UniProtKB/TrEMBL annotation:
Signal peptide coordinates: 1-20
Family, per entry: Belongs to the TO family.
Pfam families: JHBP (PF06585)
A cellular component term, taken from the record's GO annotations: extracellular space
Protein name in UniProt: Uncharacterized protein
Source species: Henosepilachna vigintioctopunctata
SMART domains: JHBP
Keyword Iron-sulfur: no
GO biological process: circadian rhythm
InterPro entries, A to Z: Haemolymph_juvenile_hormone-bd, To_sf
Amino acid sequence: MRQFILSIIVFVLYQHSAESYKVQSAPFPAVKPSWLKVCRRTDPHLNQCVTDLLVEMFPYLATGIPELNIEQFEPLHLDKVSISKGHGAIVLAGSLFDMVVHGPSNSTPTYTELDLKNKKWNLGVDFAHLDIKSRYHLKGHILVLPIVGHGNCDLNLSNIKTKVETNITMRMKEGREIIFVDQMKVNFSVGNMKIKLYNLFNGNKVLGETLNNFINKNAAEITAELSGSINESMSDIFIHLLNNIFSKLPTDLWLLTDEEFEKYNAKQELTTAKAISAS
């Protein structure tokens, strides 16, 4: 059931990503942003360096990076998304609307496996919690129980763990190299979940509580029914997000060759020496 609820959220975010998380054009930064960590390709600890890079970058993504045309994602404000599943043990029709999603900024990159030779970039991202408030209008059935209602909806998820596997290519853009994610596979798990649909069955509290409890307790059957498309939708979201960032950050700013790294260090040492001299 946790995956059932998350699948609704993912479906919503997938629709939203078509607008907000598509790759939006922006010029390359004139200089390396202060929040962008530098890594050396031949560093034996490259994976840890890239993980640290993502950890340091995420707070800036949460508030948005206007110079890169990257909008904030904390909180997410979503207008309306239609929901439709017309066969099987779960049949639903309706929509979620006026959604506010808190928690995406509480995400933590946990590991990175960057293999430039084989063009693979795998990573893990944990979300501490997602708190969603919305309006809903739903009709259908979940397993043996009917569902009908419209009103407020509260969703609370915690301990969400994702594993992302990607195929990448090194592309040239405006004469500079970038990393581009071509394909992606996402797997996830959810530790805890709670949902509350208000005003089910025209405000019948007994039937409403029965259905809410049923939804919160029955996971396996609904997971089996809906899990097939969830990872694909999440992949679309993550691809848009990663490409919207790294298509605007040439590798000569953050993933340096030995020659580039030596030049970068020399420049940093010169800057430090000038600062000391000026003081």
